[in-house]
From TrEMBL:
GO biological process, one term: 'de novo' L-methionine biosynthetic process
Family annotation (Pfam families): Cys_Met_Meta_PP
Gene Ontology molecular function: carbon-sulfur lyase activity; pyridoxal phosphate binding; transferase activity, transferring alkyl or aryl (other than methyl) groups
Gene3D superfamilies (UniProt xref): Aspartate Aminotransferase, domain 1, Type I PLP-dependent aspartate aminotransferase-like (Major domain)
Annotated pathway: Amino-acid biosynthesis; L-methionine biosynthesis via de novo pathway; L-homocysteine from O-succinyl-L-homoserine: step 1/1
Keywords of this entry: Amino-acid biosynthesis, Lyase, Methionine biosynthesis, Pyridoxal phosphate, Transferase
Protein name: O-succinylhomoserine sulfhydrylase
């Protein structure tokens, strides 16, 4: 490494927007401005003794990109700084992050409590995958604190929730649930993907672990998959590090490099998207044929007061009910000209999704009804288009 003649800054003391540009950067001897892409599977050692030292841990250098990689490490360090976490581990996808965060903590005979309002694949892990290995689970109404208390058992190992929830944007009291979990001797894992690290900090609210699908806002431009698990150094080392090392859901160095570039603009993008979402939610509420709008930033949201206390803004997501059930929702979505139909979210392009037939289709009709995922519900991920253009598109779609 060349000598660094510039004085070192304590980036942890600076604002998030600065951390997103400079955090976790490690420069090679070439002094590159952009983060270096170390697209390599393995690493060479000068001597056999050097290889031995890497493997026995006395030399903390890199061994193999399934274990760790310089570009991936930069992404992990930047995310940890942004989240206010002691440690982070990147994964190949958001679902790899969620699965590892749970599987790394439990053994046969343990018990997990989770909110019912989860992304469909997360419910699969809790309801179908964990029980195959002798881990029982209980699903609760995440907004009902009494249900969390009642569900805890002596063998409960961890709680899982997402807030806001996907797709109905319920807000769960993270601080209160963390307190219940800790009193029960359990940990709390929070999927913070819809709030983004810019608008909510679950670790500050008492969570033990935060997971993200970096595929969403962190990339933000629909390019690649990725995930990340964050927590204290002890949580990551005791529960996550060896599991990822031995089972191999590794993040590609190339994807890590793309995600690093995405982080540089995360604050700008999310701020603009949330500002547009607030305007668009109000506009949708005035349109004919739309019977309900769910947006945490609106006073008519059921948990608006909690959202104001827990989140920095109403976020980038909107859910709304179209009259006429599935047929009405399909017709409305098909009339949109600017907004694209897809199952992703957090993209620079606005995206509309019909959860009942896509992201949550594997749930039973009864389960969807219980969660408020009705045939007429559409989920909207607000992008970077001009607010007036989006309002015009939804206005013409509502008029038919």
């Amino acid at each position: 490494m060349p000598p660094d003649h510039q004085p070192r800054l304590d980036l942890a003391a600076l604002h998030a927007d600065t951390q997103l540009v400079h955090g976790g950067t490690t420069r090679s001897s070439f002094g590159e401005m952009s983060e270096a892409l170390f697209l390599t599977q393995g690493f060479a050692y000068d001597t056999m003794e050097a290889a031995e030292a890497r493997f026995d841990g006395s030399d903390p250098g890199f061994i193999y990109s399934r274990f760790s990689n310089p570009t991936v490490a930069m992404f992990e360090q930047r995310m940890a700084m942004l989240e206010g976490a002691e440690a982070a581990r990147a994964t190949a996808s958001g679902m790899a992050a969620v699965t590892a965060a749970l599987m790394g903590q439990v053994r046969a005979g343990d018990h997990v409590v989770a909110a019912k309002a989860l992304f469909g694949s997360c419910r699969y892990v809790v309801e179908d995958l964990l029980p195959r290995f002798g881990v029982e689970s209980t699903l609760v109404d995440g907004t009902d604190l009494a249900q969390w208390r009642a569900a805890a058992r002596p063998n409960t190992k961890t709680f899982l929730l997402e807030s806001p929830t996907n797709p109905t944007l319920e807000i769960i009291d993270v601080e209160a649930v963390a307190d219940i979990a800790h009193r029960a001797g359990a940990t709390l894992v929070v999927d913070n993907v819809l709030a983004t690290p810019m608008h909510q900090k679950p670790l500050r609210l008492g969570a033990d672990c935060v997971v993200y699908s970096a595929t969403k806002h962190i990339d933000g431009q629909g390019r690649c998959l990725g995930g990340v698990i964050l927590g204290s150094a002890s949580f990551i080392n005791d529960n996550i590090h060896n599991l990822l090392r031995q089972t191999g859901p590794a993040l590609s160095p190339f994807n890590a490099w793309v995600l690093l570039k995405g982080l540089e603009t995360l604050g700008l993008r999310v701020e603009r998207q949330a500002r547009t979402a607030a305007r668009l939610a109000d506009a949708l509420a005035r349109l004919p044929g739309i019977s309900r709008v769910l947006y945490p930033g609106r006073p008519d949201h059921p948990q608006h007061a909690l959202a104001q206390r827990q989140m920095a803004s109403g976020g980038t997501m909107i859910a709304f009910e179209v009259e006429g059930g599935k047929a009405g929702a399909f017709a409305f979505g098909n009339r949109l000209r600017l907004v694209r139909i897809s199952n992703n979210l957090g993209d620079a392009k606005s995206i509309v999704t019909h959860p009942a037939t896509t992201t949550h289709q594997r749930l039973t009709l009864e389960a969807r009804s219980e969660l408020g995922i009705t045939p007429g519900l559409l989920r909207l991920s607000v992008g970077l288009e001009h607010a007036e253009d989006l309002i015009s598109d939804f206005t013409q779609a509502a008029r038919g």
